[in-house]
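lol ok so funny story. i was supposed to be doing the assay writeup but got distracted and ended up predicting the structure for this chain instead. priorities right. anyway since i did it might as well share w the group, maybe its usefull for someone
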Amino acid sequence: MSPTQHLVIMAKAPRVGRVKTRLAHDIGVHKAWSFYRHNLNSLVNSLANSSGWKTWLSVSPNKSVFENHVWPTGVQRICQGLGGLEQRMDKIMQQMPIGPTIIIGSDIPEIHSSYITDAFQLLGHKDAVIGPAQDGGYWLIGQRRRPKTIPLFANVRWSSPHALADTLLNIPHLASIGYVAELSDIDDGTSYQKFIQQQCSHRP
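and the output, tada:
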C-alpha cells in the first residue's frame, strides 16, 4: 500500500479583528474578516473531498481545535502548537503520518485543486515543491519526506520579499526542487480591489 499524501491547510480561527489585520487596516475589520472566512470555507470545500490526498486543518490558537462551530466541517483538525512560524511549520513536516506532505495557507483565493495535484505529482520525483507568491514569498511548500525530512524553515524572514530565497538556502545542494503556479496573496487594499475587479469581470 502506497503512503497517503497529506495536504495541510494552516488557518487562524476566523474571529473578527484577529485575521487579515493588515488588510483590515485598508478595508475595515468586518470586511477583512468576511473575506477571510469566506475564502477559508471555499478553500476547504474545494480541496477536502479529493481522493488524491487527505486534507488536514492545522489551526491556531490551539484551543480553537475543539470549537466545531468555528471551522468548516468534514476535515480533521490538528493544533499548530507553540512557537513561531518556523517551529509550527517544521512540526507539521516532522509529525504528519508517513507520506508526501504539502502545506498551504488559507487566504489565497486562486488556489485550485489542479495546483495541488500538480504539486503532488512533482513530489513523485522531486524532494521538495514550492508554489511561489508574487511578493517574494510562497503560498505552497511541500516535500517527499523520503528518505528523510529536510529542515526548511530556519532563519526565514517571514512576511518579507526574502522568504522564498531564505527557504531555498535551507535546501541541500543535491536535493531536487519542483515549482507550481505563482499566485498572489490578498494582503492590502490594492490587492483586494484587484481581486474584486477580477471577480466582477468573470461574472456574466
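The chain has a mean pLDDT of 94. The chain has one domain: 6-202.
back to the writeup now i swear
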